[in-house]
Design goal:
heterodimer, A: 7 helices, B: mainly alpha, membrane (chain A), quinone (chain A), NADH_UbQ/plastoQ_OxRdtase_su6 (chain A), transmembrane (chain A)
Chain lengths: ~200, ~500
């Protein structure tokens, strides 16, 4: 075993262990803050796995987007709604857990079977392009993926406007054309709210 | 490579209709900067112009479709043009019936128009996308805009609940789609739908079936087929009614267009598998949608369940996969556009005047408001499929195409559930018409005086008249619709393979 392969193997083992243990911690730990920080660790180790696969661009994107944006957002959300609230215990939690565990295990066994039965190698072996990948992605973005790339800007613009509309405080207090008072609720008034209706 | 980039022919004229919609988005956002008063005056005009010119450019494309543009990310073939026209029309009508509703509920009009136009943009692009990435981006544009629209009346807990439920279920569906498409990319090394279809013919069937199931479940979520329908009733009940009108027609049409495209290009060699799955989805949707609609007390909820059932009818055409079947599906979607939006414009008008959408509150309405009674009755009869309405001809064509393709089970289930649906549609009509004046509901007894003068009501009136007229007369004059639907299918290159397969089997 050459040094390169040994190093790679050690890195792979460490990263995989961190991913698996971290992911278990995210799900199993009671404190949501621990879960959030462990999730950041999981994201970082996945980025490391991408690096091992010679996908440096994806690794950088993973760190920027998931650790830098998503995870920070989650932690912010936790800080902002840090309210002590006694939640009602959910009835028959045990059977729910058994059902969801069995569903997840079925899916896992399905995926393992797919992994084992399928031949993953492509018909034409492609050399890893490593460092060049960023350039290649840029070329694709401005040639055959031009349309999705441009539509993504519309998506982001609309998401931003929508977020502002939903989050801003100043709401109209009267109907623009008739001047009657408004309440920003559905025109169809209901006598009972949906949630209480069902419980 | 770098030099080649400058000489590539993009065929960008394929997305001119979408470009007009984009101009509309920018325009409505700009006038919104000038304040609410200006926005409520100018945003409607900008929307009419942008959708109108979009429809016009779609009509111009009809005779010379662009069969590949953006290096294989987008096709503007006749099928895509037909579906995009249906979506643009549904947005136009939904906007016409929404102005009064948004103003009366006190929500900003400019942003509402911009978001609904972006949803249209995503839906229209989805109809023509031929690449996994552009499918995903346009699907997300449509979905994110729909989440925002359903939560638009943020002070109402029902609206927020609808948005949250829609967001959670929708994100799960998007994730499942991405997982399925990562399988497809891993198997074929390409994101182009046609190339994937050629590459996966010889691959092991297990993983391709898994990818098929993942992709199909996303489609089923978008068209609200049972058992992926749980979000529909709550979202439809909690969203602003004009948004429901758009979701039930525009968003569903986009889902069907995507379904036809991916199933007949990428999975054309797996037609037995997907036809079986689609048959199950269709039977469940028709049965459950129509049976549960019987028990509803809220008009919006009833229309939600009925739309689940209607989606099941359209699936009969797609399962048969013949020339007639596919054109029947296109025709039925066009018919559904008019009859469903006609019904929604009546429901919106009623709730604007009374603030209620309970079916019981409609009792005795014909005394006070004959227009709503007549319009709603015609549209509901057409949805139920009674002659001589538009819906009858659409449905009979679907059943005929299914029967010719030996889909006996589907057609029989369709016929039985149609009869069930006629029962609950007629019971609403009976409620409105038969009750004596003294039996009328409290709400109808205190019905306000009819006043069409308020800003936003004239557009609603135009939409109502148009939809009801097309629904009532379109059946008799439906020959041009038949021809257009037939051309849309027969002039579309990618459908010919699957039609040939269907013809060989039968």
């Amino acid at each position: 075993m050459s040094i390169a392969i040994t190093t790679q193997f050690i890195c792979f083992t460490v990263l995989t262990l961190v991913v698996i243990i971290g992911a278990l911690g995210v799900v199993l730990l009671e404190s949501i803050v621990y879960s959030a920080f462990l999730l950041g660790g999981v994201f970082m180790s996945v980025a490391g796995l991408y690096l091992l696969l010679n996908a440096s661009f994806v690794a950088a994107a993973q760190v920027l987007v998931y650790v830098g944006a998503v995870n920070v957002l989650i932690i912010f959300a936790i800080m902002l709604v840090n309210k002590k609230e006694d939640l009602k215990p959910i009835g028959d939690i045990k059977s729910r857990r058994i059902i969801s565990t069995s569903i997840c295990l079925t899916l896992l066994s399905l995926l393992i079977r797919v992994d084992l039965t399928n031949v993953w190698s492509l018909s034409s072996p492609q050399n890893s392009i490593g460092e060049e990948s960023t350039i290649r992605i840029g070329e694709h973005l401005f040639s055959d993926y031009l349309l999705p790339f441009e539509v993504a800007s519309v998506l982001l613009l609309m998401a931003m406007i929508g977020a502002i509309v939903l989050a801003r405080r100043d709401v109209l207090s009267k109907d623009i054309s008739t001047g009657l008072p408004v309440d920003q609720e559905l025109i169809e008034k209901s006598s009972e709210p949906l949630l209480t209706n069902k419980n | 490579m770098p030099n080649e980039i400058f000489t590539i022919n993009l065929n960008a004229q394929a997305i001119i209709p979408e470009a007009f919609i984009l101009l509309g988005i920018v325009g409505t956002l700009l006038v919104d900067l000038a304040g609410e008063k200006t926005a409520s005056k100018w945003a409607p005009i900008i929307c009419y112009f942008s959708i109108g010119s979009s429809l016009l450019s779609l009509a111009l494309q009809w005779t010379n479709p662009v069969n590949s543009s953006f290096l294989g990310s987008f096709n503007s073939d006749n099928l895509a043009i037909a579906f995009r026209a249906i979506i643009a029309l549904s947005t136009l009508i939904s906007l016409l019936i929404s102005w009064r509703y948004t103003e009366q509920s006190g929500s900003p009009i400019g942003e509402f128009a911009a978001i609904i136009l972006s949803a249209t943009l995503g839906a229209m692009l989805l109809c023509g996308s031929t690449d996994l990435i552009s499918v995903f981006i346009s699907l997300e544009t449509l979905s994110v805009a729909s989440y925002l629209l359903s939560g638009y009346l943020k002070r109402d807990p029902r609206s927020s609940e609808a948005a949250l439920k829609y967001l959670l279920v929708g994100s799960a569906a998007a994730a499942v789609y991405l997982y399925g498409s990562s399988f497809l990319y891993g198997l074929s090394g390409s994101t182009n739908l046609t190339t994937i279809g050629l590459e996966i013919i010889n691959k092991p069937s297990f993983i391709t079936s898994l990818a098929l199931v993942f992709v199909l479940s996303t489609v089923a979520f978008k068209i609200a087929a049972v058992p992926f329908h749980q979000w529909t009733p709550d979202v439809y009940e909690g969203s602003p009614t004009p948004v429901v009108a758009f979701l039930s027609v525009g968003s569903k049409t986009a889902g069907f267009a995507f379904a036809i495209r991916i199933l007949s290009t990428s999975f054309s060699s797996f037609d037995e598998e997907w036809k079986l799955l689609f048959t199950i989805l269709a039977i469940l949707s028709m049965a459950l949608g129509n049976v549960v609609a019987l028990a509803q007390t809220s008009m919006k909820r009833m229309l939600a369940y009925s739309s689940i059932g209607q989606a099941g009818f359209v699936m009969i055409g797609i399962v048969s996969g013949t020339q007639d079947g596919l054109s029947a599906a296109v025709l039925y979607l066009a018919a559904y556009l008019f009859m469903n939006l006609g019904a929604f414009s009546c429901v919106i008008l009623f709730s604007l005047r009374t603030g209620s959408d309970k079916i019981l509150d409609y009792s005795g309405l014909y005394q006070k408001d004959p227009l709503i009674t007549l319009g709603l009755s015609l549209c509901l009869l057409s949805l139920g499929g009674l002659p001589p309405m538009l819906g009858f001809f659409g449905k009979i064509y679907l059943f005929f195409a299914g029967w010719a393709n030996h889909q006996y089970l589907l057609v029989i289930v369709g016929l039985v559930t149609s009869v069930i649906s006629i029962y609950y549609y007629i019971s609403v009509i009976k409620m409105m018409v038969v009750k004596e004046p003294k039996e009328a509901s409290e709400i109808v007894k205190s019905y306000p005086e009819i006043n069409w003068g308020i800003v936003g009501l004239p557009p609603l009136r135009i939409a109502l008249y148009t939809c009801v007229a097309v629904t009532a007369l379109g059946g008799i004059l439906s020959n041009p619709f038949f021809k257009l639907a037939n051309t849309a299918v027969s002039e579309t290159p990618f459908l010919q393979d699957i039609i040939a397969i269907a013809n060989n089997i039968s």
